[in-house]
Amino acid sequence: MGLKAVVLLSGGIDSSTTLAIAKKKGFLVYSMSFDYGQRHALELEKARSIADLFKVEKHIVIKLNLRAFGGSALTDNIPVPKDRNEEAISQGIPVTYVPARNTIFLSLALGWAETLQAENIFLGVNAIDYSGYPDCRPEYIKAFQKMASLATKAGVEGKAKIKIQTPLINLTKAEIIKKGAELGVDFGLTHSCYDPLASGMSCGKCDSCLLRLKGFNMANLKDPLEYPAK
Amino acid sequence: MGLKAVVLLSGGIDSSTTLAIAKKKGFLVYSMSFDYGQRHALELEKARSIADLFKVEKHIVIKLNLRAFGGSALTDNIPVPKDRNEEAISQGIPVTYVPARNTIFLSLALGWAETLQAENIFLGVNAIDYSGYPDCRPEYIKAFQKMASLATKAGVEGKAKIKIQTPLINLTKAEIIKKGAELGVDFGLTHSCYDPLASGMSCGKCDSCLLRLKGFNMANLKDPLEYPAK
Q1: How far is B76 from chain A (nearest CA, A)?
Q2: Which residues in chain A are contacts of B98 at CB distance < 8 A?
Q3: Is residue A66, in this structure, part of any structural domain at all?
Q4: What distance, in Å, lies between the first and last C-alpha atoms of chain A?
Q5: CATH number of the structural domain spanning residue B50
Q6: Residue A34: domain span
Q7: Residue B229 falls inside a structural domain
Q8: CA B225/CA B13 separation, integer angstroms
Q9: Number of structural domains, chain B?
Q10: CA distance B14 to A229
Q11: Are the Cβ atoms of B134 and A151 closer than 8 angstroms?
């Protein structure tokens, strides 16, 4: 029997590739998504399709009303920026930042990992194309891991500690896409858009769509998703 | 205008006293409770009564289905232990431990604090009568604070850092009760029982009732709650 791992799965390119990496390494994968009041539920369906594709042991969706405190374009009534150039995207923390999101998601993964007696949590953060989110930096991940090892029964009882695995942390978006393609991720099942059209089609103009399209371009691969004609 | 603080409020003695301390210190208090699939919703009503009593700025309840991963007598179908003696209570981590609970709650408080631009989070943990929970230890709190300061916009932008305030950490239950009484906490509005009767009356036999009753006894105060006749 393999070791268990909890994988945080949003249904985007990064988390889907991370799940594929955890499977490739031989872990029994338990994937976890969040219904946190994001504007569109489409990414939850996509996450489940990816979980099915990779035959995970179990996939759960945690409901969590982050709208109760708002503060982000993804959960509040703040417009999603469109058609920004690379310089604008790379400067400062965007309005699509959800306060403390990775901390909240990792904490819930920690709770499930403790219940499952899984010692590994996989998170698809990336320090290169990270759009300025503070909770995607390596020093943050290290501090979370230290806190987590003190938070749990295992920490008290001197058993093995929780490891936060971030296999994408030093990869560019293009490298992530190549890696995912090698490992069998069907990018047609993934979702990146912050603000899809009513039909579900990605907008092609938000920061997330622009980073995705640039990544496919740099990887010399074709994005299987459709976008509106320009 | 005073400084803002987020206070984690379960409606028990410790969190209610902590809220009273935050008010006494002059903070504008934003209180936060969790509907996390605990067996009884009574403590959520009690928490709201305490928030009303102390006229907080805002009280929110975050819904969160921790039952999705189970693993605790408080969220799963595991019996709550009764009539244990002090030695049994003080040994090991009880089945009422909810995996990573304080980490999950603090993470959500961190998200709200960031939205409110509050720099202080109050948590009523206690290292003395802490019943063996790993996430009530001072070294855990310190590690959380360090992680939190790296997780947020403020951490990136070099602004003031988040402070996790734990004013009860070195007090006994009796000292907490005395402090709360001085600051006007109506203990008749608080709730401690892990397994109340159908009428809502506290059982008087679970670890939490036993610690509460011992605390009132040591403080030479009368617990205003009623308990079943022995």
Answers
A1: 11
A2: 111
A3: yes
A4: 51
A5: 3.40.50.620
A6: 4-191
A7: no
A8: 12
A9: 1
A10: 59
A11: yes
